Amino acid sequence: MDRDLLSEGATRLIAFAVVLLALVLWERWAALRRQQVRRAPRWRTNLGMGAIDALILRIAWPAGAVGAAFLAESRGWGALNAWPMPAAMEVAAAVLLLDLVIYLQHWAFHAAPWLWRIHRVHDADPEVDVSTALRFHPVESALSMVLKIGVVLLFGLPPLGVLVFEIVLNAAAMFNHTNASLPGGLERRIRRVLVTPDMHRIHHSTQGAESYSNFGFSLSWWDRLFRTYRAAPRIAQASMPIGLPDAPASPAHYRLGAALLMPFRPARRRS
User: How far apart are CA 168 and CA 160, in angstroms?
Assistant: First the structure.
């Protein structure tokens, strides 16, 4: 199991690095928005927060959700271990179920005031680019891991399915936060299944109705199913205001120390 977990960590790291590099190059080649806030301080904060999250999660849950899947498999816990199905179906079921859980988690972090205090750290980024995908408060990352582990143990999700989901989730989050836009025809076709940058960017609008939409990270189906889908913002993608409505470009929103303390300070709800 230790060897399997070591291999899992290496696989995820390699996939993360390859996707990050590809999307950074795409942003540099075809940036959609001219950013008003300098890249360096934002990236220091976003990369720093991502590193803190990774460190805390590795200390608190060294095996993570994949380790929980190995445990459930060895003990015969969960629905899928009680009623096994073909391996490919189990992997597909794991990816779909976990993706739905992350959609519902994201919706809950906007709907519940105490969770919004934590999640607004992510939405406070005054620009959206690939680095924004790493900008989640450690408390949110910890709560998300507890939720994923609980779902894995309850349903007995297979280790391979959980690993595939974790890789897909990380890649999808970086992809849909990228400061670029797909060509119109390709955008429409891909958005039928996957969350695209243009679809997710609407969620980062300063406008309350727009920010309370498009909660999906990987699959676009959930927003359509639960009627939280919004096709386009009121203002064009290239110029729509992004961030929190209270001083969206405030230095407090892109400095690491201030971002880490943000959940413990008064929060203004979006209008």
Answer: 12
- Looking at the chain, list the stretches that DSSP marks H as alpha helix, in order from N- to C-terminal side: 2-30, 39-60, 64-75, 79-82, 87-111, 113-123, 138-155, 159-176, 184-191, 197-203, 208-211, 221-225, 256-261
Tokens of residue 265, six digits: 């300070």
For residue 56, being part of any structural domain is answered with yes
Counting the structural domains of the chain, the total is 1
Residue 253: half-sphere exposure toward Cβ, Cα within 13 Å: 22
215, 223 Cβ separation under 8 angstroms: yes
Any domain includes 270: no
CA gyration radius, the chain: 18
pLDDT in tens, 46-93: 999 999 999 999 999 988 999 999 999 999 999 998 988 999 999 999
Which is nearest to 2 in space by CA: 59, 74, 62, 81? 62
pTM to 2 decimal places = 0.93
Residue-wise pLDDT for 110-133, tens only, equals 999 999 999 999 999 999 999 999
3 state DSSP class of 155: helix
- For the chain, the first-to-last Cα distance in angstroms comes to 49
Domain that holds residue 79: 2-264
Angle at which helix 113-123 crosses helix 87-111, to 10 degrees, equals 100
For residue 59, the one-letter residue type is: I
C-alpha distances (whole Å) from 161 to each of 6, 68, 111, 219, 259 are 17, 12, 29, 16, 33
